[in-house]
Amino acid sequence: MESTSSIVFVESDRMSQRKKNVIEILRDNPGFVSGQSISDTLGISRNAVHKHVNSLRARGYRILGISRRGYRLEEEPRRLAMPVVAKLTQGCVVARGYRYHAEIESTNVEAKKLAREGAPEGTVVVAECQLAGRGRLGRQWTSPAGKGLLFSVILRPDLPMADAHLLALMTGDAVAEAIEGHVKVPVHLKWPNDLIITNKKAGGILLEISGEQDRVDWIVAGIGINVNVEFSELPVSLRKTATSLKMATEKTVDRSGLLARILLTLERGYTDCLTNGFERPLRHFRERDYLLHRSVSIQTRDGLVIGEAAGIDDRGSLLVELPDRHIRRFHSGDVTLHQ
Ligand code: BTN
Predict the structure, then answer these.
(1) What lines the ligand 1 site, CB under 6 Å?
(2) For residue 77, which phi and psi values (nearest 5 degrees)?
(3) Burial class, 50, CB count within 10 angstroms (exposed 0-12 / middle 13-18 / buried 19+)
(4) How far is the centre of ligand 1, averaged over its atoms, from the C-alpha of 24 (Å)?
(5) ∠128-211-133 over CA atoms, to 5°?
(6) Cα R_g (the chain), whole angstroms
(7) Per DSSP, what are the bridge partners of residue 320?
(8) Which residues are registered as beta bridge partners of 98?
């Protein structure tokens, strides 16, 4: 008999009692509640009420505020159906147990802490909202609460350190395949880890690796996808370059079903590459290669390199043809498209 994955609901204590009180008042009064009456009930200033409302909005509560009428709770943040996800993924090596957070700093940071403490392979840290989500190259990853998929999987593959980064390409391909199956839109991969839909970034992967003496100890594969994010919810600076599955399909996407599908696809990709190597995921990655034959520039420690993307080699490095026809390999870096 297959065992069912366990789910630990790690309730967030981070929301202050005051914010919980503000929400309770708004829930109990379906119409508008004036800022003054909230401030009188809780014995706090109107300014403090305003700050709590703004911070609740950042946590996914849709609260309408109209001057001289007050605040009205329009919608509470959506929650993933974790028991459904656990049932669909039962028996998966990559999803043996879930730790669900309504809110967390970063699922990658939490998963790394758990990995260092000895958490087993297949521990999945999931959150509805991250307060300090991390992207590649020290960037931030932001997502409105309850609208994206934000999760990190602890893996403990029996691999040399030199091969560990190839799991990032396998993960990218698995996530792309799952999204395509779920929402029926083509997904491309921009080396090394960006998920591209309709020429814009819809998600990314942050792989963090720890090992000793040439063996991997643990890997945390952090996956962030803009699922039901609306255009207006994207940071202004990202509106030209980012998208979401909802924006691409004009349909609200079932996040729980997608999470389960990604983990099932990851399970296949992971177990396959541990047995058969990375030839298959590399071939699939090449089929989704967004950069191929495009003019690119890559920031390296020695400066900017400009050329034409010429594919991915057998070690997962990006090949770039330079203006003098030489091919240069990049193991890591930040690639910008020129067309
Ligand atoms: C990138 O494109 O730069 C990678 C983004 C990875 C974001 C995900 S969201 C879940 C996990 N937790 C984090 O803090 N980051 C990753």
Answers:
(1) 106-108, 130, 133-136, 139, 141, 150-152, 193-194, 204-206, 222-224
(2) -60, 145
(3) middle
(4) 32
(5) 20
(6) 22
(7) 309, 328
(8) 7, 124
What's this model's pTM, rounded to 2 decimal places? 0.90
For the chain, the average pLDDT equals: 94
Placement of tokens 């109107």 in the chain = 46
Quote the tokens at residue 269.
């990709």
Q: How far is the CA of 121 from the centre of ligand 1 (A)?
A: 19
CA gap 167, 155 in Å, rounded: 10
Alpha-carbon distances, residue 281 vs 28, 258, 263 (angstroms)? 52, 20, 16
Cα distances from 229 to residues 76, 83, 145, 147, 208, in angstroms, run 15, 23, 9, 5, 26
Pocket test for ligand 1, best of 109, 134, 154, 226 (most atoms within 8 A of CB): 134
Instruction: State the Cα–Cα distance between residues 322 and 284, nearest whole angstrom.
Output: 25
pLDDT tens digits for 140-198? 999 999 999 999 999 999 999 999 999 999 999 999 999 999 999 999 999 999 999 99
Give the closest residue (by CA) to ligand 1 atom 8: 224
pLDDT digits (tens, 9 = 90+) for 221-243: 999 999 999 999 999 999 999 99
Query: Atom 10 of ligand 1 has which residue's CA nearest to it?
Result: 150
Half-sphere exposure of 182 toward its Cβ, with a 13 Å CA cutoff?
Answer: 26
